[in-house]
């Protein structure tokens, strides 16, 4: 259960604000005005604290509750500006476009790619194949994971494909994330950027129908992840 102790506002109000920010392309100033129109007097700094504080827990619940995904993956990274510098948001979806995992990294190298692949496998299991771009770092990271799989004696390694057109579905999916982050005009700190991106991805998973919703609205599904 996500702990809302100390929020000084009803849980429903906090969740509405957090969901709205993660789901739609608004700034904190925009959201402050939206909340004021609904009779809630809360400043943009408080809204920022809510998003950073609750996004990680909600995203973790989303990963645990999402429907099973396919064993054919597509992986790439997109650029996110943090403290005025470009950093790398690693992402993977399956062949149907369902979100698998995501991770913000300060670097785009073998170590970061290997860390992302290990995280994604830990969450989703070992895939049959992964499509990547022509990045040597991503290739080296995935080859390192295959070495680990051989050494651990699982009897299974991952087929690596570097075919650009097969990643079209992921490139289309990236646009939805960029549409939300573009309005944010960059992040001030790595930890807040990482937490916010986790929340954006969770809201995006709801949009793509990755949960058993039982007729619930998108916001009701989001609230359930915080239950």
TrEMBL record:
Per the database record, which ranges form the Integrase catalytic domain?
A: 64-226
Q: Does the keyword DNA-binding apply?
A: yes
Tell whether DNA-binding is among the UniProt keywords: yes
Q: Which UniProt keywords apply?
A: DNA recombination, DNA-binding, Transposition
- Source organism's superkingdom? Bacteria
InterPro entries tied to this protein:
DDE_dom, Integrase_cat-core, IS_Transposase, RNaseH_sf, Transpos_IS6
One protein family per Pfam:
DDE_Tnp_IS240
UniProt function note? Involved in the transposition of the insertion sequence.
Q: What is this protein called?
A: IS6 family transposase
Which species is this UniProt entry from? Roseinatronobacter alkalisoli
